[in-house]
């Protein structure tokens, strides 16, 4: 298992109604190098002392375990975001420290062994696009059947969510300055103008 620290994700976010799916799908496909169907399971963990941290006025760092359910089993990825950089530092896009590692075997038990407790679980189903150093995810969230823990297909009217972000954690160096990644996500924002509003968000 290897972890990467001191690296960042640059991202923009948007959402739209199902009636706009075809037009947005066509526009993104036109400006992407490849597209795949995506279906992922994401389990969110929080520290066992999360409530204590909140009572003390600090927001606990959540740990997320993600697994792709289409294609061959590539195992789990554990990742965690820290608080996004301030809007003053990066007004155009969300820039947040991002640590990630691949886990062989039971990632859920591993997360619990790290002192985390399971908070929630979601499934995301939709499309995954690659554009240079970016990945564009377009998906609907599926609810979970309590008795089987299996996903329930999303209602046709469920909002679609879009995340345009760097595919891998980037380090802010002379060779790969964060400004380069910000420009790349802003290009997508410009391409989608008039059809999809992509914006920065603090999450």
Automatic annotation (TrEMBL):
A GO CC annotation given for this chain: mediator complex
Chief localization: nucleus
Keyword ATP-binding: no
InterPro entries: Mediator_Med18
Lineage top rank: taxon: Eukaryota
Recorded family membership: Belongs to the Mediator complex subunit 18 family.
Keywords for this protein: Activator, Nucleus, Transcription, Transcription regulation
Subunit structure: Component of the Mediator complex.
GO BP term, example: regulation of transcription by RNA polymerase II
UniProt subcellular location: Nucleus
Record flagged with keyword Nucleus: yes
Protein name: Mediator of RNA polymerase II transcription subunit 18
PANTHER family recorded: MEDIATOR OF RNA POLYMERASE II TRANSCRIPTION SUBUNIT 18, MEDIATOR OF RNA POLYMERASE II TRANSCRIPTION, SUBUNIT 18
Organism of provenance: Rhodocollybia butyracea
């Amino acid at each position: 298992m290897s972890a990467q620290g001191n690296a960042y994700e640059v991202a923009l976010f948007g959402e739209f109604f199902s009636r706009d799916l075809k037009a947005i799908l066509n526009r993104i496909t036109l400006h992407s190098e490849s597209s795949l169907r995506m279906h992922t399971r994401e389990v969110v963990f929080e520290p066992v002392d999360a409530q204590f941290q909140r009572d003390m006025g600090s927001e606990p760092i959540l740990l997320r375990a993600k697994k792709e359910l289409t294609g061959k089993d590539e195992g789990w990825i554990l990742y965690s975001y820290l608080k996004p950089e301030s809007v003053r530092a990066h007004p155009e896009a969300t820039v947040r420290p991002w640590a990630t590692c691949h886990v062989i075997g039971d990632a859920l038990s591993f997360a619990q062994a790290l002192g985390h407790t399971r908070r929630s679980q979601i499934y995301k189903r939709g499309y995954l696009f690659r554009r240079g150093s970016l990945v564009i995810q377009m998906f609907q969230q599926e609810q979970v059947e309590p008795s089987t823990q299996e996903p329930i297909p999303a209602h046709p009217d469920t909002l679609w969510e879009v995340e345009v972000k760097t595919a891998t954690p980037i380090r802010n160096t002379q060779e790969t300055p964060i400004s380069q990644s910000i420009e790349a996500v802003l290009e997508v924002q410009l391409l989608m103008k008039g059809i999809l509003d992509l914006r920065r968000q603090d999450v």
